[in-house]
Amino acid sequence: xxxxxxxxxxxxxxxxxxxxxxxxxxxxxxxxxxxxxxxxxxxxxxxxxxxxxxxxxxxxxxxxxxxxxxxxxxxxxxxxxxxxxxxxxxxxxxxxxxxxxxxxxxxxxxxxxxxxxxxxxxxxxxxxxxxxxxxxxxxxxxxxxxxxxxxxxxxxxxxxxxxxxxxxxxxxxxxxxxxxxxxxxxxxxxxxxxxxxxxxxxxxxxxxxxxxxxxxxxxxxxxxxxxxxxxxxxxxxxxxxxxxxxxxxxxxxxxxxxxxxxxxxxxxxxxxxxxxxxxxxxxxx
Length: 285
Hints:
eight-stranded mixed β-sheet, alpha/beta, 17% strand
């Protein structure tokens, strides 16, 4: 059976799907997965992914945390709102809305890539609710995914190009998507076929090409968000894969902005640690 518009083709054991209704005009309905027991752990995914990005991590943390994994605005199976912003402030506002509308407290925020930036800036906004931040491979430097391979650079450049960009954003041949995402993995086998199929199915949602193009185009807002890092008062753990797209200078720059942060570099791992090393994220959560 083909999943409905708001249904994933992947089942994450021990979780259920819920929706956060819009808080006002311009906001969309947010889908999120939740499961486990204990203090809240909010899991924030990255560009062109969704809540199921944490499918292997949620069962690992379920005895210590109640996990909440939202589909960020317009992504996954959250509502696509015409004309919505996909800059860092708008995405952060959605994370803040999730935490405040569900009245979550003593929250651990764990974000990967773009989600790592949102975890840090959300912590700056909600110091009374956030207990700790785990920022995994923060995506806050020029180039981003274009650093992973020549193919990724060509794809992102094409998607952002005037005129032809919207058309290219809606064309996602499976081998190309597999190759681009595999550029974020030291172990390409960590990209499971069913997850790739789910991402491709989501990419066929009406309006999704506009969302994808807007997300790639808003990378400068993620870079600008680094100015908020010194405002974070909660303890921070920075985690990087040895082969992440960030350069040593990018990592050191964030350590200077967050001088009290713990720091872990994961050997033989790439950008998508939630896919290839969920055990490491379980250990640091």
